[in-house]
Amino acid sequence: MRYVSTRGTAPRRRFSEILLEGLAPDGGLYVPESLPRLEPGALRGKSYAELACAVLQPLMDDVPGLDALVRRAYRPAVFGSDAITPLATLEPGLHLLRLSNGPTLAFKDLAMQLLGELFESALARSGATLNILGATSGDTGSAAEHAMRGKRGIRVFMLSPHGRMSAFQRAQMYCLQDANLHNLAVKGTFDDCQDLVKAVNADAEFKARYRIGAVNSINWARVAAQVVYYFKGYFAATRSDGQEVSFAVPSGNFGNIYAGYVARAMGLPVRRLILATNENDVLDEFFRTGRYRARGAAVPTSSPSMDIAKASNFERYVFDLVGRDGARVSDLWAELERRGEFDLAALKARIAASGFASGTSRHADRLATIRAVHERFGVVVDPHTADGVKVGLEHREPGVPLICLETALPAKFAETIREALGREPERPPGFEGLEALPQRYEVIAADAAALKRRIAASAD
Questions:
Q1: 404/246 Cα distance (integer angstroms)
Q2: Residue 108 is a catalytic residue
Q3: Count of domains in the chain?
Q4: HSE toward the beta carbon, residue 417, CA cutoff 13 A
Q5: For 369-415, what is each residue's pLDDT tens digit?
Q6: Is residue 214 part of a domain?
Q7: Rounded distance between C-alpha atoms, residue 385 and residue 139, angstroms
Q8: Residue 303 lies in a domain
Q9: Residue 80 forms part of a structural domain
Q10: Per-residue pLDDT tens for 246-289?
Q11: Residue 153 zone, left/alpha/beta (φ > 0; ψ -120 to 50; rest)
């Protein structure tokens, strides 16, 4: 398998050559030159690890010992059961795919646990070290740090928006005391954090000298790992291989739902990918109008992991939308930088054919959805999952199973659960008193030059 850049000028590379990378040298994102087609019927009945091996092997075909790495990542001891991502049926045809049983109670664990194994194996073979630079709006950071803590040859520099995550999310990251983890709270928004990551990656000399790697979903391996649970959810919700299903996905950075788009392109019978945004509705606006209009800054909301004004993975989708024309993508992103928007309304037919539907959920909506799901089904969902359920039900079709992705456990967002239900969310064992633990982090300015000095000081 060869990978190309969405900007079209970077050389083609193998998976092992892009594994430790973030952006391509031309500023684009790596995607497969062509996606393999799988036969879903041949995959039904496999365990999660077996399914992951089958789905990922053609995408990572030059990784030595991939099967062993996958099986080490997806163990019941890490995810609580053999199912890894169990499916809960709320009522006939309405399901909740539970993706939050990993060590940090969020769906990001499913990709990060595999990345930890892949990174450590690659570095052991080369004898090199890696400085991971990441940005988090809430869950990526803790999932990455828990997966990378103590890994030989790896340092993590994780940027987070100062004061904009839930108290639980902050504690999950900042209480880790491992010497290879560096938490940097940025005075700004998640988009500022993401821009800093891109600025450091754009400095080719610095990136090469300090071996800068990525764990955000700009790293293709993150997306690839997330493709697996779409297949797993499909098999759990259907009995016949030709049955179409729809997935409802809360989205901010477009990585989670883009993985569903990839699964559909690889042969999974997906009728609709239903994208739910919160008050930061850039993506919903695009799928309704064809106009992509980046906001100046994300609005803080009660589903904070989706508080994103510029969706990084959206570029991968646009690359396909414009016929994989890298020069056109470069022009569109230059226009985005210059004007703050671009318009692809002329491609509305292609957009419709790609399977997406969308909608928006606001604070009052997510509170109402949390209450309704609890009253009807006895299940408590977190605010992001509530956004997905609300918009998913708006697009639900008779006879088409609807699978709503659970993206985090409600314990991570106690304030909103208290407001919706008047009580504290249940905490899994081991998380009692988390917020009272000592926390270790630094507050920094949104300054790329200062960030590079900070990385260099720790890495030299």
A1: 8
A2: yes
A3: 1
A4: 22
A5: 999 999 999 999 999 999 999 999 999 999 999 999 999 999 999 99
A6: no
A7: 14
A8: yes
A9: no
A10: 999 999 899 999 999 999 999 999 999 999 999 999 999 999 99
A11: left
